[in-house]
Amino acid sequence: MSTATSKVMRVALRGDSILTHPRFNKGTGFSTAERKAFGLTGRLPFCVNTLEEQCVRAYDQLLVREEPIRKNSFLQSLKDQNWVLYYGLLTRHLKELIPIIYTPTQADAIANYSHLFRRSEGMYLTFPNEETMERDFLEQTKGRDIQLFVVSDAEAILGIGDQGVGGIGIATAKSAIYTLLAGIDPSKAVSVTLDVGTDNQGLLNDPLYVGWPNKRIRGAAYDRFVDKFVQLVRKHHPHSLLHFEDFGIGNAKRLLDLYHDKHAVFNDDIQGTGAVTLAALTSAVGVTKSKLSDQRIVVYGAGTAGLGITRQLRDGIMAIDRLSEADANKKFFLLDRFGLIKQSLGSSKIRPDVREFVRPDAEWADASANERGEVGLLEVVKKVKPTVLVGCSTQAGAFTEEVVKEMAKHTERPIIFPLSNPSRLVEVHPSDANDWTGGKALLATGSPFPPCKQPNGKEYVIAECNNALIYPGLGYGAMITQASIMTDTMIIAGARRLASLSPALKDPDNALLPDFSEAKHVNFEVAVAVAEQAITEGSAGVEWRKEDIREKIRENMWIPEYAKFVYDERGEK
Ligand SMILES: NC(=O)c1ccc[n+]([C@@H]2O[C@H](COP(=O)([O-])OP(=O)(O)OC[C@H]3O[C@@H](n4cnc5c(N)ncnc54)[C@H](O)[C@@H]3O)[C@@H](O)[C@H]2O)c1
Ligand SMILES: O=C(O)C[C@H](O)C(=O)O
Ligand SMILES: [Mg+2]
Protein backbone atom coordinates (compact mmCIF):
# COMPACT_ATOMS: atom_id res chain seq x y z
CA MET A 1 0.00 0.00 0.00
CA SER A 2 1.52 3.36 -0.98
CA THR A 3 1.55 5.71 2.02
CA ALA A 4 2.03 9.46 2.07
CA THR A 5 5.50 9.14 3.67
CA SER A 6 6.74 7.45 0.46
CA LYS A 7 5.09 10.24 -1.57
CA VAL A 8 6.86 13.34 -2.90
CA MET A 9 4.66 16.38 -3.54
CA ARG A 10 5.69 19.45 -5.57
CA VAL A 11 4.33 22.58 -3.87
CA ALA A 12 4.53 26.15 -5.19
CA LEU A 13 3.62 27.91 -1.93
CA ARG A 14 6.30 29.21 0.43
CA GLY A 15 6.66 31.27 3.62
CA ASP A 16 3.42 32.34 5.26
CA SER A 17 1.40 30.98 2.32
CA ILE A 18 2.37 27.39 3.11
CA LEU A 19 2.27 27.85 6.88
CA THR A 20 -1.32 29.12 6.73
CA HIS A 21 -2.61 26.54 4.21
CA PRO A 22 -4.17 23.60 6.12
CA ARG A 23 -3.58 21.19 3.25
CA PHE A 24 0.19 21.86 3.16
CA ASN A 25 1.08 23.18 6.60
CA LYS A 26 3.13 20.77 8.73
CA GLY A 27 4.05 23.19 11.52
CA THR A 28 7.01 21.76 13.43
CA GLY A 29 6.75 18.74 11.12
CA PHE A 30 8.66 20.50 8.31
CA SER A 31 12.13 18.94 7.94
CA THR A 32 15.22 21.12 8.09
CA ALA A 33 15.66 20.79 4.30
CA GLU A 34 12.00 21.75 3.68
CA ARG A 35 12.37 24.78 5.96
CA LYS A 36 15.30 26.01 3.87
CA ALA A 37 13.52 25.34 0.56
CA PHE A 38 10.24 27.00 1.60
CA GLY A 39 11.59 30.00 3.54
CA LEU A 40 10.51 28.62 6.93
CA THR A 41 13.77 28.50 8.91
CA GLY A 42 13.03 31.83 10.56
CA ARG A 43 9.31 31.15 10.82
CA LEU A 44 9.44 28.04 13.01
CA PRO A 45 11.01 27.09 16.35
CA PHE A 46 14.18 24.99 16.01
CA CYS A 47 12.89 21.51 16.82
CA VAL A 48 11.55 19.22 14.07
CA ASN A 49 8.69 17.06 15.40
CA THR A 50 7.29 13.81 14.08
CA LEU A 51 3.55 13.60 13.48
CA GLU A 52 3.36 11.29 16.50
CA GLU A 53 4.94 13.96 18.71
CA GLN A 54 2.62 16.61 17.30
CA CYS A 55 -0.38 14.36 18.08
CA VAL A 56 0.79 13.97 21.68
CA ARG A 57 1.00 17.77 22.00
CA ALA A 58 -2.41 18.32 20.35
CA TYR A 59 -4.06 15.64 22.50
CA ASP A 60 -2.72 17.32 25.66
CA GLN A 61 -4.14 20.63 24.41
CA LEU A 62 -7.49 18.91 23.80
CA LEU A 63 -7.66 17.33 27.25
CA VAL A 64 -7.42 20.63 29.10
CA ARG A 65 -10.67 21.65 27.37
CA GLU A 66 -13.28 19.85 29.50
CA GLU A 67 -16.60 20.68 27.79
CA PRO A 68 -17.35 18.76 24.56
CA ILE A 69 -18.24 21.98 22.67
CA ARG A 70 -14.83 23.44 23.64
CA LYS A 71 -13.12 20.31 22.39
CA ASN A 72 -15.17 20.63 19.18
CA SER A 73 -14.02 24.25 18.69
CA PHE A 74 -10.41 23.30 19.35
CA LEU A 75 -10.57 20.49 16.79
CA GLN A 76 -12.20 22.83 14.26
CA SER A 77 -9.27 25.23 14.70
CA LEU A 78 -6.80 22.35 14.33
CA LYS A 79 -8.47 21.35 11.04
CA ASP A 80 -8.22 24.97 9.86
CA GLN A 81 -4.46 24.83 10.52
CA ASN A 82 -3.20 21.36 9.56
CA TRP A 83 -5.27 18.60 7.95
CA VAL A 84 -2.72 15.82 8.49
CA LEU A 85 -2.41 16.61 12.19
CA TYR A 86 -6.22 16.90 12.55
CA TYR A 87 -6.94 13.56 10.90
CA GLY A 88 -3.85 11.98 12.46
CA LEU A 89 -5.12 12.91 15.93
CA LEU A 90 -8.66 11.70 15.21
CA THR A 91 -7.36 8.41 13.80
CA ARG A 92 -5.41 7.79 17.00
CA HIS A 93 -8.44 8.52 19.22
CA LEU A 94 -11.30 7.48 16.92
CA LYS A 95 -13.94 6.27 19.38
CA GLU A 96 -13.27 9.12 21.83
CA LEU A 97 -13.29 11.93 19.26
CA ILE A 98 -15.98 11.01 16.71
CA PRO A 99 -18.72 12.05 19.22
CA ILE A 100 -16.92 15.40 19.46
CA ILE A 101 -16.71 16.25 15.73
CA TYR A 102 -20.00 14.46 14.93
CA THR A 103 -23.24 13.59 16.79
CA PRO A 104 -23.95 14.56 19.53
CA THR A 105 -21.53 17.52 19.98
CA GLN A 106 -21.71 18.76 16.38
CA ALA A 107 -25.43 19.44 16.95
CA ASP A 108 -24.47 22.09 19.52
CA ALA A 109 -21.77 23.49 17.24
CA ILE A 110 -24.31 23.85 14.43
CA ALA A 111 -27.03 25.34 16.65
CA ASN A 112 -24.49 27.96 17.84
CA TYR A 113 -22.74 28.40 14.48
CA SER A 114 -23.08 32.20 14.33
CA HIS A 115 -21.64 32.58 17.83
CA LEU A 116 -18.78 30.12 17.39
CA PHE A 117 -17.85 31.40 13.91
CA ARG A 118 -14.17 32.25 13.53
CA ARG A 119 -13.30 31.06 10.03
CA SER A 120 -15.35 29.97 7.04
CA GLU A 121 -15.07 26.42 5.71
CA GLY A 122 -16.72 25.03 2.57
CA MET A 123 -18.95 26.61 -0.07
CA TYR A 124 -21.79 28.99 0.86
CA LEU A 125 -24.31 29.24 -2.00
CA THR A 126 -26.86 31.83 -0.89
CA PHE A 127 -30.19 32.43 -2.59
CA PRO A 128 -29.78 36.21 -3.27
CA ASN A 129 -26.52 35.37 -5.11
CA GLU A 130 -28.17 32.87 -7.45
CA GLU A 131 -27.07 34.83 -10.53
CA THR A 132 -23.38 34.40 -9.70
CA MET A 133 -23.61 30.79 -8.53
CA GLU A 134 -21.50 29.36 -11.35
CA ARG A 135 -18.75 31.94 -10.77
CA ASP A 136 -18.84 31.32 -7.01
CA PHE A 137 -18.84 27.55 -7.59
CA LEU A 138 -15.85 27.67 -9.96
CA GLU A 139 -13.93 29.97 -7.60
CA GLN A 140 -13.46 26.90 -5.36
CA THR A 141 -13.60 23.97 -7.78
CA LYS A 142 -12.06 25.06 -11.15
CA GLY A 143 -9.24 22.75 -12.18
CA ARG A 144 -9.67 20.48 -9.15
CA ASP A 145 -10.40 16.74 -9.28
CA ILE A 146 -13.48 16.75 -7.01
CA GLN A 147 -14.75 13.26 -6.07
CA LEU A 148 -17.31 14.25 -3.46
CA PHE A 149 -19.81 17.02 -2.76
CA VAL A 150 -21.67 16.92 0.57
CA VAL A 151 -24.60 19.34 0.52
CA SER A 152 -27.25 20.38 3.01
CA ASP A 153 -29.97 23.03 3.00
CA ALA A 154 -30.13 22.61 6.79
CA GLU A 155 -33.89 22.26 7.05
CA ALA A 156 -33.70 19.10 9.24
CA ILE A 157 -30.33 19.01 10.97
CA LEU A 158 -30.13 15.76 13.00
CA GLY A 159 -33.20 16.09 15.23
CA ILE A 160 -32.79 19.80 15.98
CA GLY A 161 -34.55 21.05 12.87
CA ASP A 162 -33.91 24.15 10.74
CA GLN A 163 -30.45 25.61 11.43
CA GLY A 164 -30.05 27.96 8.46
CA VAL A 165 -26.48 28.63 7.38
CA GLY A 166 -25.22 26.54 10.32
CA GLY A 167 -26.02 23.57 8.09
CA ILE A 168 -22.52 23.91 6.66
CA GLY A 169 -21.51 22.24 9.93
CA ILE A 170 -23.24 18.98 9.05
CA ALA A 171 -21.74 18.96 5.56
CA THR A 172 -18.20 19.51 6.89
CA ALA A 173 -18.70 16.91 9.65
CA LYS A 174 -19.99 14.31 7.20
CA SER A 175 -17.13 15.09 4.81
CA ALA A 176 -14.58 14.73 7.63
CA ILE A 177 -16.05 11.32 8.46
CA TYR A 178 -15.65 10.28 4.78
CA THR A 179 -11.94 11.14 5.06
CA LEU A 180 -11.51 9.61 8.49
CA LEU A 181 -13.36 6.33 7.86
CA ALA A 182 -13.00 5.77 4.12
CA GLY A 183 -9.84 7.66 3.16
CA ILE A 184 -11.35 10.30 0.86
CA ASP A 185 -8.68 12.89 0.09
CA PRO A 186 -9.98 16.06 1.79
CA SER A 187 -8.64 18.12 -1.14
CA LYS A 188 -11.07 16.20 -3.38
CA ALA A 189 -14.16 16.88 -1.28
CA VAL A 190 -16.31 20.02 -1.09
CA SER A 191 -18.82 20.78 1.67
CA VAL A 192 -21.72 22.94 0.55
CA THR A 193 -24.53 24.78 2.28
CA LEU A 194 -27.48 25.95 0.21
CA ASP A 195 -28.50 28.98 2.26
CA VAL A 196 -32.10 29.47 1.15
CA GLY A 197 -33.05 31.28 4.36
CA THR A 198 -34.40 29.84 7.58
CA ASP A 199 -37.75 29.51 9.37
CA ASN A 200 -35.93 29.29 12.71
CA GLN A 201 -37.22 32.46 14.34
CA GLY A 202 -34.49 32.31 16.99
CA LEU A 203 -31.88 32.64 14.28
CA LEU A 204 -33.79 35.39 12.45
CA ASN A 205 -34.03 37.34 15.73
CA ASP A 206 -30.31 36.90 16.46
CA PRO A 207 -28.37 40.06 15.52
CA LEU A 208 -25.25 37.91 15.16
CA TYR A 209 -26.82 35.39 12.76
CA VAL A 210 -24.36 35.19 9.82
CA GLY A 211 -26.69 33.56 7.26
CA TRP A 212 -29.22 35.15 4.88
CA PRO A 213 -31.76 36.64 7.34
CA ASN A 214 -34.86 35.68 5.37
CA LYS A 215 -37.72 33.19 5.64
CA ARG A 216 -36.90 29.92 3.88
CA ILE A 217 -37.49 29.97 0.12
CA ARG A 218 -39.80 27.20 -1.10
CA GLY A 219 -41.57 25.98 -4.24
CA ALA A 220 -40.37 26.68 -7.79
CA ALA A 221 -37.72 29.20 -6.68
CA TYR A 222 -36.22 26.63 -4.29
CA ASP A 223 -36.25 23.89 -6.91
CA ARG A 224 -34.63 26.19 -9.45
CA PHE A 225 -31.87 27.14 -7.02
CA VAL A 226 -31.12 23.53 -6.03
CA ASP A 227 -31.21 22.42 -9.65
CA LYS A 228 -28.74 25.14 -10.64
CA PHE A 229 -26.29 23.71 -8.10
CA VAL A 230 -26.86 20.10 -9.16
CA GLN A 231 -26.36 20.97 -12.84
CA LEU A 232 -23.05 22.67 -11.98
CA VAL A 233 -21.90 19.49 -10.23
CA ARG A 234 -22.94 17.37 -13.23
CA LYS A 235 -21.36 19.76 -15.77
CA HIS A 236 -18.01 20.31 -14.07
CA HIS A 237 -17.55 17.10 -12.04
CA PRO A 238 -19.55 14.36 -13.81
CA HIS A 239 -17.83 11.53 -11.93
CA SER A 240 -18.32 12.95 -8.45
CA LEU A 241 -20.64 11.60 -5.77
CA LEU A 242 -23.31 14.09 -4.62
CA HIS A 243 -24.26 13.37 -0.99
CA PHE A 244 -27.48 15.00 0.29
CA GLU A 245 -27.65 15.49 4.07
CA ASP A 246 -30.39 16.65 6.47
CA PHE A 247 -32.81 18.08 3.90
CA GLY A 248 -36.38 18.65 5.01
CA ILE A 249 -39.15 16.07 4.91
CA GLY A 250 -40.75 17.70 1.87
CA ASN A 251 -37.56 17.71 -0.21
CA ALA A 252 -35.23 14.84 0.77
CA LYS A 253 -36.97 11.97 -1.05
CA ARG A 254 -38.27 14.22 -3.83
CA LEU A 255 -34.76 15.44 -4.73
CA LEU A 256 -33.31 11.92 -4.48
CA ASP A 257 -35.95 10.64 -6.92
CA LEU A 258 -35.41 13.64 -9.22
CA TYR A 259 -31.64 13.12 -9.61
CA HIS A 260 -31.19 9.43 -8.77
CA ASP A 261 -30.77 8.26 -12.35
CA LYS A 262 -29.01 11.38 -13.64
CA HIS A 263 -25.91 11.43 -11.43
CA ALA A 264 -24.31 9.39 -8.61
CA VAL A 265 -26.42 10.88 -5.80
CA PHE A 266 -26.96 9.56 -2.30
CA ASN A 267 -29.25 10.68 0.50
CA ASP A 268 -27.65 9.60 3.75
CA ASP A 269 -30.72 10.03 5.95
CA ILE A 270 -32.74 7.83 3.62
CA GLN A 271 -30.27 5.33 2.16
CA GLY A 272 -27.42 5.42 4.68
CA THR A 273 -29.77 5.07 7.62
CA GLY A 274 -31.80 2.40 5.87
CA ALA A 275 -28.65 0.40 5.17
CA VAL A 276 -27.19 0.56 8.68
CA THR A 277 -30.57 -0.35 10.19
CA LEU A 278 -30.94 -3.29 7.79
CA ALA A 279 -27.52 -4.48 8.96
CA ALA A 280 -28.47 -4.07 12.63
CA LEU A 281 -31.77 -5.92 12.16
CA THR A 282 -30.10 -8.69 10.14
CA SER A 283 -27.73 -9.13 13.05
CA ALA A 284 -30.57 -9.11 15.60
CA VAL A 285 -32.57 -11.78 13.77
CA GLY A 286 -29.39 -13.82 13.70
CA VAL A 287 -29.36 -13.67 17.49
CA THR A 288 -33.05 -14.66 17.74
CA LYS A 289 -32.56 -17.33 15.08
CA SER A 290 -35.48 -15.95 13.11
CA LYS A 291 -35.84 -14.31 9.72
CA LEU A 292 -36.45 -10.72 8.64
CA SER A 293 -39.80 -11.81 7.24
CA ASP A 294 -40.81 -13.23 10.65
CA GLN A 295 -40.76 -9.73 12.14
CA ARG A 296 -43.58 -7.30 12.93
CA ILE A 297 -41.94 -3.92 12.67
CA VAL A 298 -43.24 -0.68 14.21
CA VAL A 299 -41.53 2.48 12.92
CA TYR A 300 -42.19 5.49 15.14
CA GLY A 301 -41.58 8.66 13.10
CA ALA A 302 -42.42 8.32 9.41
CA GLY A 303 -40.13 11.06 8.22
CA THR A 304 -37.06 11.04 5.99
CA ALA A 305 -35.19 8.49 8.09
CA GLY A 306 -38.26 6.51 9.11
CA LEU A 307 -39.35 6.02 5.51
CA GLY A 308 -35.79 5.34 4.38
CA ILE A 309 -35.51 2.63 7.02
CA THR A 310 -38.91 1.16 6.18
CA ARG A 311 -38.16 0.98 2.46
CA GLN A 312 -34.68 -0.49 3.01
CA LEU A 313 -35.97 -3.14 5.44
CA ARG A 314 -38.81 -3.92 3.03
CA ASP A 315 -36.38 -4.25 0.12
CA GLY A 316 -34.12 -6.38 2.30
CA ILE A 317 -37.02 -8.72 3.16
CA MET A 318 -37.83 -8.99 -0.54
CA ALA A 319 -34.20 -9.60 -1.59
CA ILE A 320 -33.18 -11.92 1.27
CA ASP A 321 -36.43 -13.77 2.11
CA ARG A 322 -37.90 -13.56 -1.39
CA LEU A 323 -41.25 -12.05 -0.35
CA SER A 324 -43.39 -10.00 -2.71
CA GLU A 325 -43.51 -6.24 -2.14
CA ALA A 326 -47.16 -6.47 -1.06
CA ASP A 327 -46.40 -9.20 1.47
CA ALA A 328 -43.27 -7.44 2.72
CA ASN A 329 -45.18 -4.15 3.21
CA LYS A 330 -47.57 -5.96 5.55
CA LYS A 331 -44.74 -6.39 8.09
CA PHE A 332 -44.68 -2.64 8.80
CA PHE A 333 -46.76 -0.38 11.01
CA LEU A 334 -45.80 3.29 10.75
CA LEU A 335 -46.69 6.00 13.25
CA ASP A 336 -46.32 9.72 12.96
CA ARG A 337 -47.66 12.75 14.79
CA PHE A 338 -51.21 11.47 14.29
CA GLY A 339 -50.43 7.97 15.55
CA LEU A 340 -50.80 4.88 13.39
CA ILE A 341 -50.80 5.80 9.69
CA LYS A 342 -54.06 4.17 8.60
CA GLN A 343 -56.64 4.63 5.90
CA SER A 344 -59.21 6.47 8.02
CA LEU A 345 -56.76 9.24 8.99
CA GLY A 346 -57.64 10.80 5.64
CA SER A 347 -55.32 12.25 2.98
CA SER A 348 -54.82 15.53 4.85
CA LYS A 349 -52.81 13.65 7.50
CA ILE A 350 -51.01 11.23 5.18
CA ARG A 351 -48.10 12.60 3.14
CA PRO A 352 -47.97 11.31 -0.48
CA ASP A 353 -44.60 9.59 0.12
CA VAL A 354 -46.08 7.54 2.98
CA ARG A 355 -49.05 6.19 1.02
CA GLU A 356 -47.44 2.84 0.14
CA PHE A 357 -47.29 2.00 3.86
CA VAL A 358 -50.79 3.08 4.91
CA ARG A 359 -52.45 0.31 6.88
CA PRO A 360 -55.87 -0.84 5.77
CA ASP A 361 -58.17 -0.19 8.72
CA ALA A 362 -58.04 -3.09 11.08
CA GLU A 363 -61.01 -3.47 13.45
CA TRP A 364 -58.70 -3.09 16.43
CA ALA A 365 -57.46 0.24 15.06
CA ASP A 366 -60.91 1.80 15.00
CA ALA A 367 -61.84 0.20 18.31
CA SER A 368 -58.82 1.71 20.06
CA ALA A 369 -58.78 5.10 18.30
CA ASN A 370 -59.20 8.31 20.31
CA GLU A 371 -61.81 10.98 19.59
CA ARG A 372 -59.71 12.22 16.69
CA GLY A 373 -59.57 8.72 15.22
CA GLU A 374 -55.89 8.39 16.13
CA VAL A 375 -54.24 5.25 17.55
CA GLY A 376 -51.17 5.88 19.70
CA LEU A 377 -48.00 3.84 20.20
CA LEU A 378 -49.10 1.90 23.29
CA GLU A 379 -52.31 0.77 21.59
CA VAL A 380 -50.37 -0.28 18.50
CA VAL A 381 -47.91 -2.28 20.61
CA LYS A 382 -50.77 -3.99 22.47
CA LYS A 383 -52.56 -4.98 19.28
CA VAL A 384 -49.71 -5.56 16.81
CA LYS A 385 -47.36 -7.24 19.33
CA PRO A 386 -44.27 -5.98 17.42
CA THR A 387 -40.94 -7.83 17.50
CA VAL A 388 -39.11 -4.69 16.31
CA LEU A 389 -39.56 -1.06 17.45
CA VAL A 390 -37.61 1.63 15.55
CA GLY A 391 -37.58 5.30 16.64
CA CYS A 392 -36.68 8.20 14.37
CA SER A 393 -39.22 10.68 15.71
CA THR A 394 -36.99 13.26 17.50
CA GLN A 395 -39.28 12.60 20.50
CA ALA A 396 -37.14 11.95 23.59
CA GLY A 397 -38.59 9.35 25.93
CA ALA A 398 -41.39 8.31 23.57
CA PHE A 399 -40.72 4.62 24.29
CA THR A 400 -42.04 4.67 27.83
CA GLU A 401 -41.67 1.91 30.42
CA GLU A 402 -45.28 0.91 29.72
CA VAL A 403 -44.61 0.64 25.97
CA VAL A 404 -41.38 -1.33 26.41
CA LYS A 405 -42.82 -3.73 29.00
CA GLU A 406 -45.92 -4.25 26.84
CA MET A 407 -43.67 -5.17 23.94
CA ALA A 408 -41.65 -7.55 26.12
CA LYS A 409 -44.86 -9.43 27.05
CA HIS A 410 -45.23 -10.64 23.50
CA THR A 411 -41.67 -11.30 22.32
CA GLU A 412 -38.77 -13.09 24.00
CA ARG A 413 -36.09 -10.70 22.69
CA PRO A 414 -37.58 -7.25 21.92
CA ILE A 415 -35.54 -5.56 19.19
CA ILE A 416 -35.53 -1.85 20.06
CA PHE A 417 -33.68 0.78 17.97
CA PRO A 418 -34.19 4.34 19.34
CA LEU A 419 -32.25 6.12 16.61
CA SER A 420 -33.01 9.82 17.12
CA ASN A 421 -30.00 12.14 17.41
CA PRO A 422 -28.45 13.93 19.18
CA SER A 423 -28.33 11.75 22.31
CA ARG A 424 -30.75 13.92 24.29
CA LEU A 425 -33.54 13.08 21.80
CA VAL A 426 -33.26 9.29 22.13
CA GLU A 427 -36.70 7.63 22.33
CA VAL A 428 -35.56 5.48 25.28
CA HIS A 429 -32.29 5.39 27.16
CA PRO A 430 -30.79 1.96 26.44
CA SER A 431 -30.14 1.31 30.12
CA ASP A 432 -33.87 1.75 30.83
CA ALA A 433 -34.89 -0.54 27.97
CA ASN A 434 -32.37 -3.07 29.25
CA ASP A 435 -33.70 -2.88 32.84
CA TRP A 436 -37.38 -2.89 31.82
CA THR A 437 -36.90 -6.08 29.79
CA GLY A 438 -34.70 -7.87 32.30
CA GLY A 439 -31.73 -7.66 29.96
CA LYS A 440 -33.62 -9.29 27.09
CA ALA A 441 -33.82 -6.33 24.70
CA LEU A 442 -31.57 -6.27 21.64
CA LEU A 443 -30.57 -2.61 21.42
CA ALA A 444 -29.01 -0.12 19.01
CA THR A 445 -29.06 3.69 19.22
CA GLY A 446 -28.35 6.60 16.88
CA SER A 447 -25.67 8.19 19.08
CA PRO A 448 -23.10 6.51 21.36
CA PHE A 449 -24.24 5.26 24.79
CA PRO A 450 -22.28 3.36 27.49
CA PRO A 451 -22.69 -0.42 27.91
CA CYS A 452 -25.53 -1.75 30.12
CA LYS A 453 -25.23 -4.20 32.99
CA GLN A 454 -27.05 -7.48 32.40
CA PRO A 455 -28.77 -9.41 35.28
CA ASN A 456 -25.95 -11.97 35.03
CA GLY A 457 -23.44 -9.19 35.66
CA LYS A 458 -22.13 -9.20 32.08
CA GLU A 459 -21.82 -5.93 30.16
CA TYR A 460 -24.06 -5.47 27.10
CA VAL A 461 -22.42 -3.18 24.54
CA ILE A 462 -24.97 -0.87 22.88
CA ALA A 463 -24.42 -0.82 19.12
CA GLU A 464 -24.36 2.64 17.54
CA CYS A 465 -26.74 2.27 14.60
CA ASN A 466 -25.53 5.43 12.90
CA ASN A 467 -25.22 5.84 9.17
CA ALA A 468 -21.53 6.78 9.66
CA LEU A 469 -20.84 3.07 10.10
CA ILE A 470 -21.73 2.54 6.43
CA TYR A 471 -22.16 5.72 4.36
CA PRO A 472 -18.40 6.39 3.97
CA GLY A 473 -17.93 2.89 2.56
CA LEU A 474 -21.05 3.10 0.39
CA GLY A 475 -19.92 6.43 -1.02
CA TYR A 476 -16.28 5.46 -1.47
CA GLY A 477 -17.15 2.20 -3.18
CA ALA A 478 -19.35 4.10 -5.63
CA MET A 479 -16.98 7.02 -6.29
CA ILE A 480 -13.76 4.97 -6.59
CA THR A 481 -15.39 2.77 -9.26
CA GLN A 482 -16.89 5.90 -10.88
CA ALA A 483 -20.35 4.36 -10.60
CA SER A 484 -22.81 6.31 -12.77
CA ILE A 485 -25.52 5.89 -10.11
CA MET A 486 -25.76 4.50 -6.57
CA THR A 487 -28.05 1.50 -7.09
CA ASP A 488 -30.24 -0.19 -4.47
CA THR A 489 -28.36 -3.45 -5.04
CA MET A 490 -25.04 -1.71 -4.26
CA ILE A 491 -26.55 -0.46 -1.00
CA ILE A 492 -27.89 -3.88 -0.03
CA ALA A 493 -24.49 -5.41 -0.81
CA GLY A 494 -22.90 -2.90 1.58
CA ALA A 495 -25.50 -3.54 4.28
CA ARG A 496 -25.03 -7.31 4.05
CA ARG A 497 -21.24 -6.96 4.32
CA LEU A 498 -21.70 -4.76 7.41
CA ALA A 499 -24.08 -7.31 8.94
CA SER A 500 -21.51 -10.04 8.31
CA LEU A 501 -19.10 -8.17 10.59
CA SER A 502 -21.50 -8.06 13.54
CA PRO A 503 -19.92 -9.16 16.88
CA ALA A 504 -23.29 -10.71 17.83
CA LEU A 505 -22.86 -13.30 15.09
CA LYS A 506 -19.98 -14.80 17.09
CA ASP A 507 -21.37 -14.09 20.57
CA PRO A 508 -25.17 -13.46 20.81
CA ASP A 509 -24.57 -11.40 23.96
CA ASN A 510 -22.28 -9.04 22.08
CA ALA A 511 -23.15 -5.83 20.20
CA LEU A 512 -25.37 -5.97 17.12
CA LEU A 513 -22.91 -3.88 15.08
CA PRO A 514 -19.12 -3.41 15.05
CA ASP A 515 -17.77 -0.83 17.46
CA PHE A 516 -16.88 2.61 16.08
CA SER A 517 -13.26 1.89 16.96
CA GLU A 518 -13.47 -0.57 14.01
CA ALA A 519 -15.25 1.90 11.72
CA LYS A 520 -12.33 2.32 9.30
CA HIS A 521 -12.01 -1.42 8.73
CA VAL A 522 -15.81 -1.78 8.52
CA ASN A 523 -16.19 0.98 5.93
CA PHE A 524 -13.29 -0.47 3.93
CA GLU A 525 -15.11 -3.80 3.74
CA VAL A 526 -18.35 -2.01 2.79
CA ALA A 527 -16.50 -0.13 0.04
CA VAL A 528 -15.13 -3.43 -1.31
CA ALA A 529 -18.60 -5.00 -1.32
CA VAL A 530 -20.10 -1.97 -3.08
CA ALA A 531 -17.29 -1.86 -5.66
CA GLU A 532 -17.68 -5.58 -6.34
CA GLN A 533 -21.42 -5.13 -6.85
CA ALA A 534 -20.97 -2.06 -9.06
CA ILE A 535 -18.53 -3.94 -11.29
CA THR A 536 -20.68 -7.09 -11.35
CA GLU A 537 -23.84 -5.24 -12.33
CA GLY A 538 -22.13 -2.91 -14.81
CA SER A 539 -22.73 0.34 -12.90
CA ALA A 540 -18.97 1.00 -12.60
CA GLY A 541 -17.04 3.36 -14.86
CA VAL A 542 -13.78 1.42 -14.37
CA GLU A 543 -12.80 -2.01 -15.65
CA TRP A 544 -11.15 -3.63 -12.66
CA ARG A 545 -10.73 -7.35 -12.15
CA LYS A 546 -12.59 -8.43 -8.99
CA GLU A 547 -9.38 -9.78 -7.47
CA ASP A 548 -7.77 -6.33 -7.80
CA ILE A 549 -10.54 -4.36 -6.06
CA ARG A 550 -9.16 -4.53 -2.53
CA GLU A 551 -5.71 -3.34 -3.55
CA LYS A 552 -7.10 -0.64 -5.84
CA ILE A 553 -9.24 0.73 -3.01
CA ARG A 554 -6.38 0.56 -0.55
CA GLU A 555 -3.88 2.34 -2.82
CA ASN A 556 -6.35 5.18 -3.48
CA MET A 557 -7.03 5.89 0.19
CA TRP A 558 -5.74 9.17 1.64
CA ILE A 559 -3.66 8.48 4.75
CA PRO A 560 -3.01 11.27 7.33
CA GLU A 561 0.79 11.22 7.02
CA TYR A 562 3.23 13.88 5.75
CA ALA A 563 4.47 13.61 2.16
CA LYS A 564 7.98 14.91 1.37
CA PHE A 565 7.70 18.42 -0.15
CA VAL A 566 9.81 19.77 -3.02
CA TYR A 567 9.50 23.49 -3.84
CA ASP A 568 8.18 24.12 -7.33
CA GLU A 569 8.55 27.61 -8.75
CA ARG A 570 6.31 26.70 -11.71
CA GLY A 571 3.15 26.17 -9.64
CA GLU A 572 1.42 23.81 -7.21
CA LYS A 573 1.22 20.20 -8.45
N1 LIG B 1 -29.13 6.98 13.55
C1 LIG B 1 -28.99 7.52 12.37
O1 LIG B 1 -28.07 7.20 11.62
C2 LIG B 1 -29.98 8.55 11.92
C3 LIG B 1 -30.09 8.83 10.56
C4 LIG B 1 -31.03 9.80 10.15
C5 LIG B 1 -31.81 10.45 11.09
N2 LIG B 1 -31.65 10.13 12.39
C6 LIG B 1 -32.44 10.83 13.41
O2 LIG B 1 -33.83 10.55 13.22
C7 LIG B 1 -34.60 11.69 13.62
C8 LIG B 1 -35.51 12.09 12.48
O3 LIG B 1 -34.69 12.50 11.40
P1 LIG B 1 -35.40 12.80 9.99
O4 LIG B 1 -34.34 13.35 9.06
O5 LIG B 1 -36.19 11.63 9.57
O6 LIG B 1 -36.39 13.99 10.39
P2 LIG B 1 -37.85 14.25 9.78
O7 LIG B 1 -38.28 15.58 10.29
O8 LIG B 1 -37.86 13.99 8.34
O9 LIG B 1 -38.75 13.11 10.46
C9 LIG B 1 -39.15 13.16 11.80
C10 LIG B 1 -40.52 12.48 11.81
O10 LIG B 1 -40.96 12.30 13.16
C11 LIG B 1 -42.32 12.69 13.20
N3 LIG B 1 -42.73 13.06 14.55
C12 LIG B 1 -42.56 14.24 15.17
N4 LIG B 1 -43.17 14.21 16.36
C13 LIG B 1 -43.74 12.98 16.50
C14 LIG B 1 -44.50 12.32 17.49
N5 LIG B 1 -44.81 12.97 18.62
N6 LIG B 1 -44.94 11.06 17.27
C15 LIG B 1 -44.61 10.42 16.12
N7 LIG B 1 -43.88 10.97 15.13
C16 LIG B 1 -43.45 12.24 15.33
C17 LIG B 1 -42.41 13.86 12.23
O11 LIG B 1 -43.75 14.10 11.84
C18 LIG B 1 -41.56 13.34 11.08
O12 LIG B 1 -42.31 12.57 10.20
C19 LIG B 1 -33.59 12.77 14.00
O13 LIG B 1 -33.38 12.80 15.38
C20 LIG B 1 -32.31 12.32 13.30
O14 LIG B 1 -31.14 12.77 13.95
C21 LIG B 1 -30.78 9.21 12.84
O1 LIG C 1 -25.80 12.83 11.52
C1 LIG C 1 -25.94 11.77 12.15
O2 LIG C 1 -25.41 11.51 13.24
C2 LIG C 1 -26.78 10.67 11.60
C3 LIG C 1 -27.89 11.15 10.74
O3 LIG C 1 -27.48 11.59 9.48
C4 LIG C 1 -28.78 12.15 11.42
O4 LIG C 1 -29.23 13.07 10.69
O5 LIG C 1 -29.01 11.97 12.61
MG1 LIG D 1 -28.50 13.27 8.76
Automatic annotation (TrEMBL):
One of its GO terms (biological process) is malate metabolic process. Keywords: Metal-binding, NAD. A divalent metal cation binds at E245, D246, D269. It holds the Pfam family malic. GO terms for cellular component: cytosol; mitochondrion. Its cofactor is Mg(2+); Mn(2+). Residues 270-535 form the Malic enzyme NAD-binding domain. (S)-malate binds at N421, N466. Residues 79-260 form the Malic enzyme N-terminal domain. GO terms for molecular function: malate dehydrogenase (decarboxylating) (NAD+) activity; metal ion binding; NAD binding. Divalent metal cations. Prefers magnesium or manganese. Belongs to the malic enzymes family. This is Malic enzyme. It comes from Ceriporiopsis subvermispora (strain B).
